[in-house]
Request: fold
Amino acid sequence: MDLSRFDKKLKEYCDKEQISGTLRITVKDKIVYQSHFGYANDESKTGFDEK
Reply:
């Protein structure tokens, strides 16, 4: 399943609306899509993958 178009549109929307969070889509207990958007901490501008 190719979700690249969905991923691109979702990232564009989240950037435009300044939305932060994580989205995971599962089908029958299998993760088919997972991504992070924005910041884990808006004040320090820390990304989700940063420590």
Q: What stands out?
A: The CA atoms of residues 4 and 21 lie 18 Å apart. The mean pLDDT is 88. The helical segments are 4-17.
